[in-house]
Structures are given as structure tokens and as C-alpha cells.
Amino acid sequence: MRIGLLGTGNVARALAHGWSAAGHDVLLGSRHPAERKDIGLPVAGLSATADHAEVLVNATPGTASVELLRSIGAPALAGTLLIDVGVGLSDDFTELSHPNSSLAEEIQEAFPLTPVVKTLCTMDSTVMTAPDGLDGPSTVFLSGDDADAKRTTGRLLTDLGWPPSAQLDIGGITTSRGQEHFALLFMGIAGGLGAHTFNIKVVTRPPAQVLPSA
Ligand SMILES: NC(=O)c1ccc[n+]([C@@H]2O[C@H](COP(=O)([O-])OP(=O)(O)OC[C@H]3O[C@@H](n4cnc5c(N)ncnc54)[C@H](OP(=O)(O)O)[C@@H]3O)[C@@H](O)[C@H]2O)c1
Question: Which residues are in the Pyrroline-5-carboxylate reductase catalytic N-terminal domain (predicted)?
Fold first, then answer.
């Protein structure tokens, strides 16, 4: 697929390399494309990246994402699946910019013709593309209102190394707030462990099949 990634930081680079290795046509979108030649993958401006993309990924600071998407414009984003990995955190990682909601909900409301799926934001960028590097399987969550968009996202997650059994569809876009608010616990766990390279796994009794929703 043609995948455009907004942002050129840790998350965008990791995902772009992961999907490129899986055979996808990736393009990173930057505010300053001429200054981002060191990535080893193509970089373009934000609108050119959106134009290129069948699937667009938001990997920009959650405090800036909506304004950035507005600069691209709703018509250019209409009909394009938007995978949102962003979280709006304060500089000291102690407060959320969407305390009673979520970034993904705000994006979905602002761009109603763009199906938004929230995923991957509950783990470090190093884990997003190498889930088998951990000591056992773990869980990645999906939130969104559009079933087709979630199915496509599920296939792209599989291409990064997340088998369907590791993917848990937790419901509509409002469930994104759970994923985003987990960021606060994530920072606590990272502090306790002294490391960011970990993930959580949902365990049940009796053993249940955890499959993406139809
Ligand atoms: N790092 C992680 O492990 C992780 C895990 C889960 C979720 N997240 C979330 O994923 C998103 C990306 O994280 P990241 O670690 O990749 O961030 P990052 O390294 O700071 O990169 C963010 C990128 O967004 C672009 N950008 C656009 N508008 C911006 C603005 N106003 N200020 C700063 N950068 C802006 C920049 O690219 P250009 O300068 O080229 O435009 C920048 O490289 C964030 O929302 C973060 O909360 C991160």
C-alpha cells in the first residue's frame, strides 16, 4: 500500500522502516522536508504526503496534530484511512492535552469523512515494529468507528509483526481515550522498570481467542 507518515521522529521513522521492509511504498511527511535527508527513506511536504497516501499515519505531537491536519485540509484527507498513533502529553509527561477525551476523537470529529483508527500508542516506538523482541507475546489495541478501516489497520499491524491473536479491537473511536490515557501509566511503569522496552498483555480465564472484530 502507499503509506504516508506525518512526522519524521521516532515513531514515524520506526513505522516507515517497518512497513518499507514489508514491501509497502512509504513516504514521510515533514514541515521541513529539505532538512530531513538523513532518514534513508523518501521525505516530502505534508500535503504531498497526504496526496500520495492510501493510508496516512499521524505520528506528530498530539498537542499539534489537529492544527497540522487542518493545514493539509479536510478535502485532501477525505476518504483516506488515518491511523493515529499520537498522544498529547505535556513536556514533563505528567498531563494529557485531552484529559476528558482523546486526540483521536478530536481528529475524527474535525474530519468526519476520514476514518480514524487509533492504535500502537500504548507502547514504545521500538516495540511497535519488533513485538517479538519482547519476552513473550503482548497486545496491541485498535479503536475506531469504521470496520473496513480497522480491518486494513489490522493487516498493516500484521505486517509489522503483530499476529491477529495479538490484536484487540476495543470498540469505537471513543475507546481511544483509554489507549491515550494509558500513557500516564506507561510513564509510571517505565519509571519503575527503568526502561521503555516493554508492553502489556491482556490475559483472560478461560483462554479466549482475541481476534479483530469483523
Ligand atoms: N516515541 C514513542 O515511543 C511513542 C510511543 C507512543 C506514542 N507516541 C506518540 O507518537 C507521536 C510521535 O512521537 P515521536 O516520539 O515520534 O515524536 P518526535 O520524535 O518528537 O517526532 C514528532 C515529529 O512530528 C513532526 N511535527 C509536526 N508538528 C510538530 C510540532 N508542532 N512540534 C514538534 N514536531 C512536530 C516533526 O517532524 P518535522 O519536523 O519533520 O515536521 C517531528 O519529528 C507523539 O504524539 C507521541 O506522543 C510516541
Answer: 2-87
